[in-house]
Structure formats: structure tokens, C-alpha cells
């Protein structure tokens, strides 16, 4: 493929590596997959939080400042607008691509749809969730919910193609839009180059559980703080390490004060740093709070820990439950402190062997590597560009 023939793909997202999180890793894998197929890839994104650095792949990344909330998130109307408004002009004046890929939220999708209509460019929506379902789950009602639902439906219906990370997401999108065609399930996974059993570990930290990721109403990470409070006194040498940010962070810190230094909240850090903790953790922690519109979601936090060899304690429902139980990947509990506390005590009493850690990592590499997701997504994006959605 000559340089002139190379397809030109622009990825528009408020999150991209080295920022941590499922979306950032997923889009990095997509960019790599596209570049491997000879595409010229340009990523339009934000500046990551201070202290996060990392090399780009074989693609160009354009970064711009963005407003973040007190927890460091690009989450909320003002934060979204601080990305979306500049994005309109950045897309409008940038070299014309053959296709644009956009991630949620729907406000960003609306900007991409508008510019793509003006410039006659097809776009693909990469959906890890359905924002209107999630909004309804956390209590959004009335005109705000109706507007969000209309916007998301309009953006999804107009897309040349939609990439869904799971069958549950695909079904949600189909129900919302009425689309039967052009919704492609590309799967979900974890960056197994970063999250692997090989590399630095943290044996000097002693015995500890690790939660790493967003702390919001949807994840319900507070269940782990409340559960740890039930076992902390009887296990004074065990700690709970909470890495990340989110709207519930300050409330969780307040709830943990009574437990003392056994619970530690640490700021967001690089994936490689988190992986070093997973390699020594007694277990990784992940949850999807039931009834919040995300019961169909995969908890990629579990997959990240598993890829580094840490068994998982998973609280909640959804597809992770069957996956963990069938493949003996850890312990599934109800989303309540008493059930999670029992799981924690079981892990403390019977820590997994090094051989089992190796098994967990190998299984994750074989079944949930983001490389395959990026390759599947790249194939679909290029097909949509050619009108074969």
C-alpha cells in the first residue's frame, strides 16, 4: 500500500493512553490495529493528568487542555463541553480523513456527526455502553433524560457503523435505535502487554487487596470499603489499596477514616505501576452496582488484575459472573458488604499459588487480549469507510 492509498482515520476521544481506563486502552488498541493495516491514524484527544506519560505508537496524537472535575475526571456537562467545543473546530480545520471514530458521551458524538455531515465524512461510533441507560440508572429523569436519549439515538442511527464491546451492549443499542444492521460486536479485553505477570512487583507492601479505576455510582466501589471495615480488626496486617478517582472518592475517604491506615487511597497512576501492584495483590477488586443501567457491562478491572496474575473478587451481576465461576478466576459475591467480606476472608485464608497466578494470566491473554479487539475494530472501521457496514 502506497502512502497515497493509505486510508486516513481520525479517532476523537476525551480519553486516550497514557491515561488509564478501559476506553483509553481500547482506543490505543484500535489505533495500533489500524496502523498495522496501513492506515494513517490521527488521534484528537486531551492532555492527560499531570505525571502520566507514555510513548505513542505508529500514529499521530493531537492533545488539547481540558477541564477536569475535583477528582481529575473529564465527567460532567462543563467538562464534556471543554472538550467538545474545541473538538468541533479541531475536526473542522484538520486534514480531511476518510472516516472518523468517536467514543461516548453522545455530546461528543453530536459534534462529530455535525462536522462529518458538513465535510461529508462517514463516522463510526465505538460504544462501550449506552449512556442514556446509564443515566437512567443513576436517577436522571425528565427533560434531561429525554434529551440525552434523543441525542444518543440520533447519533447512533446516523453512524456508518457502530462497534459494541459486548453482546449486551449490542442488544441495548439495537433496542434504542431500531437498527438491525451495522452494529458489530468486537469484544472487550485488556492491554496484556502492560498487564502481564512479568515485571516489577510489590512484595514489600505486604498483604493487600487492590481496587484500581473509577469510583462512581455505577461501579459502587464503596462496597469494598464497607466490607473491609468488617474484617480489618481481625486482619491488622492486611490493607486495602484504592487507586483512582471519581465522584464518590471523597465520600469513600470519609467512610474509611474510621478504619485507619489499613485503607489507603492513592492517585491515578500509569497502567504499568498498577500492574506491579496486581502482581503482588492477594486479589483485585471489581464491581458493577446492580440496577444502575450497567448490568450488561464487563468489568475490565477484573480482566486487568487477572492478566497480571491476580485472582478477582467481583461484586455484582452481569456477564462477569458466569465467566469467573466457569473458569475459576476468583470469587463472585453479591453486591453487599457482608458477602464481599466473606470473599475477602476466603482469599486471605487460602491465597492462590504461583502456578495458579500463571494460569490466570495465560487464560486472560488467550481470551481477552485487547490486541484482538483492536484488530477486529480496525477491520470494521475500514469496512465502514468503504461502505460495507
Secondary structure elements and their pairing?
Elements: E1 8-12, H1 22-36, E2 40-46, E3 60-64, H2 77-93, E4 99-102, H3 106-119, E5 123-127, H4 131-137, H5 142-158, E6 161-164, H6 167-177, E7 183-185, E8 207-212, H7 222-231, E9 238-243, H8 249-256, E10 263-266, H9 271-278, E11 283-288, H10 300-307, E12 312-316, H11 319-327, E13 330-333, H12 337-349, H13 354-367, H14 370-385
Provide an overview of this structure:
The chain is of the alpha/beta class. The protein is built from 14 helices and 13 strands. It has helices spanning 22-36, 77-93, 106-119, 131-137, 142-158, 167-177, 222-231, 249-256, 271-278, 300-307, 319-327, 337-349, 354-367, 370-385; strands at 8-12, 40-46, 60-64, 99-102, 123-127, 161-164, 183-185, 207-212, 238-243, 263-266, 283-288, 312-316, 330-333. α10 links the parallel β11 (283-288) and β12 (312-316). It folds into two domains: 8-189 and 369-385, 3-Layer(aba) Sandwich (Rossmann fold), CATH 3.40.50.2000; 203-367, Glycogen Phosphorylase B (Rossmann fold, 3-Layer(aba) Sandwich), CATH 3.40.50.2000. Strands 3-2-1-4-5-6-7 form a seven-stranded parallel sheet, sandwiched between helices. Strands 10-9-8-11-12-13 form a six-stranded parallel sheet, sandwiched between helices. The two termini are 22 Å apart. Helices cover 43% and strands 16% of the residues.
